[in-house]
Design brief:
Nucleotidyltransferase, domain 5
Amino acid sequence: MEQPPGFANSKHPDYVCKLNRALYGLKQAPRAWFQRISSFLISYGFTCSRADPSLFVFTQGESLMYLLVYVDDLILTGNNSSLLTVFINRLHQEFVIKDLGSLNYFLGLEVLHTNDGLVLTQTKYANDIVIRAGLTHAKPVPTPLSTSDTFVSDGVPFDDPTLYRSLVGALQYLTITRPDLAYAVNQACQHLHALTEKHFQLVKRIVRYVKGTISHGLVFTRPTSSTILGYSDADWARCIETRRSTYGYSIFLGGNLVSWSAKKQPTVSRSSCESEYRAMANAAAEIVWITHLLQELRTLPPSRPTLLCDNRSALFMSQNPVSHKRAKHIDLDYHFVRELVMSGKLHTKFVPTKLQLADIFTKSLPRPQFEHFRDLIRVHPLPFRLTGDKR
């Protein structure tokens, strides 16, 4: 390590400093730091969540504290203010930390508190993406992709793959608060190693959509109920090159979107029923994880979760112990979903296609349908506030 400016040894200016310990830059540093902070939290009375290793839960009678750890950034909340104050003082004694007060900014996520909940946005991060793409003065578009846009391998190779990968990686992080981008970004991510001019033009369209909706974010309101409701969907043989299906799901807790996914299935499905059923299995696995997490948070709803699907054949397979030729090769998913339904841990129901919210994660939609589903998954622009409003 070079001698820092102002502290150089005048007699030996070419000498270097011996580094005894460093928090950043070493491969084992994150693991060592997490071991240090987790040991302190466990000794204080916290328990590490089995569903999420970065979450710690403290219980004392009816009092609860939740602590989320991301390297050296911590989020702390609870239902007992005096207990929180005592713990924060103890943290100050153990570590050199800075209390930033109410949560407003975390890992690029902006948190706006409203009268009935909060809004998660990445407005500054989204604006940086638009500037990086050189589209500051570009005309916005109403949807990330048009219904005729497809990512195919044929075409003229793009001469700046680093720019493409940089933009797609940034857009992928933006989907944390913008689930309406999930399908389009997933399509762009599948061509990082063999990209063409056409691919870059489609990514630019996604950025132009971001520019037009730069103030949008994910809205959370006070729940009117505590039910878990999931939507599962698959677009059979969506990929025209591999004929693999694209599946997606969206899971709501008390009316708020808490989990979603848009992915290509790893294998080819022989029928739409098979692709839909595999999508149900993935959604069911996510619902099971959410129930485990809520159970550790002591907020598990009393009613069983419900999974909605718009394919009656897939629903029949989940509710009836009848195996037939078309289901022979999908026994693993069959038994998994079937046993959840039989044990009363999951309820499956039919939903009409026009109400299938997971459609926004499986295909490009026309503008009216896209905007309708975007509203239903609660991606809205920031609420208007007058200057000086302290609410």
